Amino acid sequence: MKFTPTAILPGIATLLFAAGCSSTAASIDSAKYDRMSCAELNSALGDTATDISRTAIGRGKVANTSVPSWLLGGERVKTVVANRDTARIEKLQQQQQAIVAARKQRCPSSQ
After folding, report:
1. 101, 45 contact by CB (below 8 A)
2. pTM
3. Residue 107: CB partners within 8 Å, gap ≥ 6?
4. At what angle do helices 5-20 and 74-106 cross, to 10 degrees?
5. What angle do CA 96, 101, 103 make, to 5 degrees?
6. If DSSP states are collapsed to H, E and C, what string results for 73-95?
7. At residue 91, what are phi and psi to the nearest 5 degrees?
8. CA–CA gap between residue 78 and residue 109 (Å, rounded)
9. What's residue 23's pLDDT?
10. Which pLDDT tens digit goes with each residue over 43-82?
């Protein structure tokens, strides 16, 4: 198989499009945690921890991917995807902190 610039460009364009599709701009709504029961807060905390772990594992896989030198822009795409995952982890950690704060306020057994 011969790789030409015209064959590679659609692949790179697809990767860049996929990397830019997810948004991490949503804000944390801590008021919704004030309405949750202790069991719901515990469940939300577990779900958030799972999401953080899953995203960190994915980010590690992307960061450790070996990009062939002939793939123009491959390292840039790899960096963009890793940065997107880092931003998602930071957002999830903020969400986790909001859940922990609500849990400390409402649930006597969590203190």
Report:
1. no
2. 0.69
3. 38, 41, 42
4. 10
5. 95
6. CHHHHHHHHHHHHHHHHHHHHHH
7. -65, -45
8. 43
9. 46
10. 999 999 999 999 999 999 999 999 898 999 999 999 999 9
